[in-house]
Design brief:
six-stranded mixed beta sheet, alpha+beta, transferase, acyltransferase, about 200 residues, Acetyltransferase, GNAT_dom, Aminopeptidase, 5 helices, Acyl_CoA_acyltransferase
Length: about 200
């Protein structure tokens, strides 16, 4: 399992400046499920974070899916980040992962991805996790590489209104991920002390 680095990645596509002070600890709530009541908040979050717009069907499908496939990050009752996935046969596709600009560099995106990896690892039917990243988005590629995602292919003319219009497909082998987790857990497990040996009964005279 790839161990996420603590090194701060500064994306040249993101105007947020690098932090030179300790990351503030926020009490972020990751336990709220997406519903009809808060789907509009997710829509506004995506509009604020992405250069593309998702249609009505996208959000209707999000509400209908297994709630574990959408993880929301709330701070002070405000939705500040989210990750959304869908299952495609035996693969888990990351549709969106975003955090509002004022809350970036606070490990919220990292925690969202880690939580979704937990969901993926728990489903034995899933063999791969993947997403599409614009070829110019070096920040995103560096971020996902810390979690063991690798470039698998390039798709040209993937985006209609973005330049460059091509994307890389980043994939993570979930079977290997589970095996690595199991091996790490076995190493970390405490070794049971041997049971005490009862003394032999004294021989009778």
């Amino acid at each position: 399992m790839a161990i996420p680095s603590s090194k701060i990645i500064v994306c040249r596509y993101d105007p947020v400046v690098e932090r030179h002070h300790p990351v503030p600890e926020l009490k972020v709530n990751y336990g709220v499920h997406v519903t009809e009541k808060n789907i509009e908040q997710l829509r506004k979050l995506n509009i604020a974070c992405f250069p593309v717009r998702y249609g009505e069907q996208f959000y209707r499908d999000v509400v209908k899916r297994d709630p574990k496939l959408t993880i929301l990050a709330y701070y002070a009752d405000n939705l500040i980040g989210a990750i959304g996935c869908r299952v495609e046969e035996n693969k888990l596709y990351i549709m969106t992962l975003c955090v509002l600009k004022p809350y970036r560099r606070m490990h919220i995106g990292r925690i969202l991805l880690e939580k979704m990896l937990e969901v993926a690892a728990a489903d034995e039917s899933l063999t791969e996790m993947y997403l599409n990243v614009q070829t110019s988005n070096e920040c995103a590629m560096a971020f996902y590489s810390q979690f063991g995602f690798e470039k698998d292919a390039e798709i040209r003319n993937y985006y209609r209104r973005l330049e460059p219009n091509s994307c890389f497909v980043l994939t993570k082998d979930l079977v290997a991920f589970r095996q690595q987790r199991a091996a790490a857990a076995a190493v970390a497990a405490p070794i049971a002390a041997p049971a005490p040996v009862a003394p032999s009964p004294a021989a009778s005279d």
